[in-house]
Write a structure and sequence with these properties.
By secondary structure, this protein is mostly helical. It contains 31 helices and no strands. Helix 7 crosses helix 20 and helix 16 runs parallel beside helix 29. Keywords: Cell inner membrane, Cell membrane, Membrane, Plasmid, Transmembrane, Transmembrane helix, Transport.
Length: 696
């Protein structure tokens, strides 16, 4: 029976080797471009990574040290390992040991490594005197702070590229040259000593909340995701998705959506999800008739949903609990419906495209059986159930991660004992744990460097008050636009929107555009941190609830992964599909339109997030039902198919109806349904007659 199931699953296997998949991930994800190491340096780096993972695993279960000490240790290890792992320029083909490259590492990298480690540990070392230093720093404090800022800029540039370091430098320049800024942006300016004091010695900068969340929560969940994938949970999700969705029209594409949703629950990386599931689903989509660029787009759009899918949601969920001061269960509950909407939108377009092209599902012989798959791999689900159960019990997230990781280790031991004798099982378990811990720690390097550097930006915002200045500018512009549009619409016998509603709408549009533009070169976590420092005050001035504002900027930051010209997830999928990257990016953005519409829905109707103030089931039903109908109609207009091809005027009607349907207002919903009715009735009648419709 097991051999039969393997034969059926073989139809989903990709021709890509593991090495080719790794190359694609490195090509499109700068966070994965690790430098080659000499054998000695490889052992040193691996040992340090393993120790860092063990340290976090132990502290998660048995107690975290004082915050400043914990953050300083994590930052010191991260900076040292970043210079061991990432080259200054590009990715060298091999490492050489020479006088200028001891152990294969250039001397300037050794200098940056040592400087970063010493500067990061300096603040915990002087902690007992820190209260006397803040506001009156010693010269050595300024020197150490300056070293750390410079090293952070370079470490982040290596791990993530230029955008975030450039933005950080602009903020530093703004803090220093404030008196030369125009208009409301002007401020007295701060000396370099004051800037370093604020960013280095206080909890408002580098050692602030962002670094604290990464070192206290995120690292543990990254490690859990790696170990859960290694024990086979990710493959189980893919196999179950194949069994459940593969038989329907366009089966492999629906498998892609469903498997990405499930895999996203344990992994918050869009590109990693794209490569992992896309290596199996993209060739299958192409084989049944989907165009290559569309197959790549489906996988990319589906995989970006991983960052918004509970219970892990990447790093942002844990940042939210700190900034909003709410339990993690509140964040996870709020994320449920919007995450469903994203996958619903992709799934509808996948289905309509399959119907339009007359694509088949997979045959019974090509599919595994769901019960057989689950029976063979049910043990792999234990860590996820343990993680979720402890999270829902109200315990700390890092304790939940500790037991989740422990469960992964237990499952790994059992798997090896079943397959091997005791000695071999022990060796395989230790090897797998070494690889998993090292890889998990390595994945955390870039996000830690980015979070620490974002602390510089947040520190400048709190030092200068620029967040409220920007908020005033944006809301003023939005108010002027709203007044002009309101006057322009005055000829109508009824009021479409009030001035306050229009002001909020224009503010949301500007905020969304900035989030997407920022996200084109900055990872989601860093983008979110910057936007909550700058954009959240804007929405707060207009009465938007904090949790709604945070989710709004978060969702639009994630959308950047499939928004050209820097749609990295789409480009990685295009690499697997051998498709045109830009065409794949445009199509992925189209498929992700549900994610683009939904934040506006819950901004105007917060009940969609369930846990907001003033929640009512009536508002929730209207917002959620209207959003689903709107996404369906917009998908039909974009796909040129509802039940059959559409005429041009029907596509226009459906697109207009979609906008009205997603608006959480009964009048708008009824008008939208009225626009849908003619196209819906005509298509149903002709479909019932069995006639062919020719769209235009």
């Amino acid at each position: 029976m097991a051999q039969e199931e393997q034969k059926k699953a073989a139809h989903f296997e990709s021709e890509l080797t593991e090495e080719q998949m790794k190359e694609i991930e490195e090509q499109f994800d700068p966070e994965m471009r690790f430098r080659p190491l000499t054998p000695q340096l490889a052992w040193l780096t691996g040992g340090l990574l393993f120790f860092l993972a063990c340290y976090h695993y132990y502290t998660a279960g048995f107690g975290i040290p004082r915050a400043t000490t914990h953050r300083g240790l994590h930052l010191a290890f991260t900076l040292g390992l970043t210079f061991l792992s990432f080259a200054a320029w590009g990715r060298p083909k091999e490492a050489h040991n020479s006088a200028l490259t001891p152990l294969g590492l250039p001397v300037w990298d050794w200098a940056l490594l040592i400087g970063g480690v010493v500067a990061a540990l300096y603040v915990p070392w002087i902690f007992n005197d820190l209260a006397f230093r803040v506001g009156n720093p010693l010269p050595i404090d300024i020197v150490m702070g300056t070293i750390l800022i410079v090293v952070l800029l370079e470490a982040t540039r290596r791990a993530m590229g230029w955008p975030l370091p450039i933005i950080s430098c602009l903020f530093l320049a703004y803090a220093y040259f404030g008196q030369n800024m125009p208009g409301v942006l002007t401020h007295p300016g701060a000396s370099w000593s004051n800037i370093v004091n604020h960013l280095y010695l206080t909890s408002q900068g580098i050692y602030g909340t962002a670094l604290g969340v990464i070192s206290t929560y995120v690292f543990h969940f990254v490690l859990f995701g790696v170990l859960a994938t290694r024990i086979g949970l990710g493959q189980l999700f893919i196999d179950l998705a194949s069994a459940l969705a593969g038989r329907y029209a366009g089966g492999p594409a629906k498998v892609s959506v469903l498997s990405s949703a499930m895999l996203g629950s344990i992994s918050g990386s869009s590109i990693a999800n794209t490569v992992t599931t896309g290596a199996l689903t993209i060739p299958a989509m192409v084989r049944i008739g989907y165009p290559r660029h569309f197959a790549a787009a489906v996988e990319a759009a589906s995989s970006t949903g991983g960052q918004i899918t509970p219970p892990v949601m990447g790093a942002v969920a844990f940042l939210m609990i700190e900034y909003l001061g709410v339990p993690l269960t509140t964040i996870l509950t709020a994320a449920l419906v919007p995450a469903f909407m994203h996958f619903f939108g992709v799934l509808v377009q996948v289905h309509l495209e399959a119907r339009r092209r007359g694509l088949r599902g997979l045959t019974k012989d090509e599919l595994p059986v769901a019960w057989t798959v689950f029976k063979a791999g049910w043990l792999n689900t234990l860590p996820l159930f343990v993680l979720v159960a402890i999270l829902l019990s109200g315990k700390t997230p890092y304790l939940a991660a500790f037991w989740g990781i422990t469960s992964c280790i237990l499952v790994l031991i059992i798997q090896n004992l079943i397959k091997h004798d005791l000695k071999t099982a022990a060796w395989d378990t230790l090897t797998s744990l070494w690889d998993g811990f090292v890889l998990g720690a390595r994945y955390s390097l870039s996000v830690t460097a980015a979070a620490a550097l974002v602390g510089v930006i947040i520190g400048v915002v709190t030092l200068t008050g620029v967040g409220f200045k920007i908020a005033y500018m944006v809301t003023s512009v939005a108010a002027v636009w709203a007044t002009n549009v309101h006057e322009w619409l005055a000829f109508l016998p009824f009021e479409v929107m009030t001035i306050s509603t229009l002001t909020l709408l224009f503010t949301l549009i500007m905020t969304a555009l900035v989030c997407v533009l920022m996200g084109c070169g900055i990872p989601t976590t860093a983008n979110y941190l910057i936007m909550i420092a700058v954009a959240a005050p804007i929405l707060g001035l207009l009465g938007v609830q904090p949790i709604v504002a945070h989710f709004f900027v978060f969702y639009y930051g994630v959308l950047a992964d499939i928004t050209p010209p820097v749609a990295l997830a789409a480009y990685a999928a295009a690499g697997i599909a051998n498709a045109n990257a830009f065409k794949a990016g445009n199509t992925a953005f189209r498929l992700g339109m549900g994610k683009a519409l939904v934040p506006f829905v819950f901004a105007f109707s917060p009940s969609m997030l369930i846990v907001t103030e003033g929640f009512t089931w009536t508002e929730f039903t209207l917002a959620t039902g209207g959003a689903m109908l709107g996404i369906w109609m917009l998908s039909a207009a974009l796909s040129n198919w509802l039940f059959a091809p559409l005429y041009a005027f029907e596509r226009v009607l459906l697109a207009l109806a979609a906008i009205l349907l997603v608006a959480p207002d009964w009048t708008a919903t009824l008008i939208g349904l009225g626009l849908v009715a003619p196209a819906m009735i005509r298509q149903l009648i002709q479909k019932g007659r069995g006639e062919d419709l020719v769209g235009s």
